[in-house]
Amino acid sequence: MELDDLKKSWQVEDRALDSNLRWRPLGRYAATLRRSDSTARRLLRGLAIEVVVSAVATVLLGSFLASHVGEPRFFLPALLLDLAAIFQLAIGVRHLVAARRRDDAEPVVAAQKRLEALRVERLRATKWTLILAPLLWTPLLIVGLEGLWGVDAWAVFPPLYLAANALFGLAAIPAGLYLARRLESRLDRSPFLRSLARDLAGRNLAAAIESLAALTEFERDAAVAG
Amino acid sequence: MSRPEAQERFEALLSQHKKILWKVANAYCKSVADRPDLVQEIAVQLWRSFPRYDERLRFSTWTYRIALNVAISFHRSEARRARHTVPAEESLLEIAADPPASVDPDLETLHRFIAELEPLDRALVLLYLDGNPYDTIAQVLGISETNVGTKIGRIKQRLRRQAAASADKERI
Fold it and tell me: Contact A23/B47, CB-based, under 8 Å?
């Protein structure tokens, strides 16, 4: 079976489309099209929300830091959280700028490489955020109780309790990775949890890196590739 | 150019090239139910990009680039799978006539073969089957003409191998 022979069948279908394919006048749809959502818009919206949330967290934690300068038991946990928020904000802004540069009129391979490179960065950031998040549980507890309700966690909970929480957070990292790898294939009923498990286990990142490599390979000249 | 003039010009150009949207949407949608959504996404992106359209590029080349980029992203987007926002009866593009009573088996084979290809190979085959010369295909995809020729050669070999394997299976 030859592709050029099948091309004839393709061209017959193509000629039929000339007479059968109907295009609805855009006039009626122009306003709808302007408002329409798209994959690109959803990505930009998600990134913008991330940036806003990180910015708000940074400002609130900065304010908390300023009001607890002389109290290391609050200052240090808040500093850790603020650094994490600033890091998230920086990444979010970088990704938002990269996403806004998207131009679908670019040659296909270049456009897809740009998108996939952004996806690799986002998945890498997500993976490390999920892995390191348990370490922030105890600082969050201390800062949250003091910031929201004026409750001193150091006075309410025994130091051993707080230390145990911190160690639990540390232990949760390898445990979370193990569970993500084991359970990922069993979470079919919940696409969200499945995606989270795949993010944590690094499978989505590995797939995206492979996809980016395939795009680079596709672009390489046959003569150079040998 | 005023907005109504721009819209009129855009519609006229798009109407001449509507088959590109249809064929790209057909090639990249896993189900017929997804097609109206993808056609609309492509149309939205074309409309938004139209103010920046560079007339040094042929409109068909520009349309292919945008349609393929949107379709490949759509195809990869997991979030899209369960949602259909455009009812089929409100699709921007539709087939006016009833489908023929018997479908060409060669065409069915071709569509199945295309559906099995990776997204970029799918784009390559689509452009080739539409009769685009190698330099146009190279311009749409952003690769060299030599690369286009080599890849099309490999795809042809793959099709031959698949056909030979199917024929062997039927003999057994």
Answer: no
Question: Which residue reads 């089957």 in tokens?
Answer: B129
Whether B141 sits inside 8 A of A108 (CB atoms) is yes
Q: Which residues of B touch A10 (CB under 8 A)?
A: 107, 110, 129-130
Dist. CA B137–CA B139, nearest whole Å: 5
What is the pLDDT averaged over residues A157-179? 86
Q: What are phi and psi of B111, to 5 degrees?
A: -65, -40
Tens of pLDDT along B15-27?
889 899 999 998 9
Contacts of B162 in chain A (CB under 8 A): 1
- Indicate whether A108 pLDDT > 90: yes
Q: If you average pLDDT over residues A146-171, what whole number do you get?
A: 87
Q: Which helix (H) or strand (E) holds B3?
A: helix B3-16
pLDDT score of A187? 79
Indicate yes or no: CB of A14 within 8 angstroms of CB of B10.
no
DSSP assignment letter at B101: S
Q: Which of A10, A25, A195 is facing B129, going by the closest CB pair?
A: A10
ipTM for the predicted complex: 0.87
**Using CA atoms, how far apart are residues A220 and B144, in angstroms rounded to an integer?**
9
The rounded Cα B15 to chain-centroid distance in angstroms is: 16
Q: How far is A70 from chain B (nearest CA, A)?
A: 48
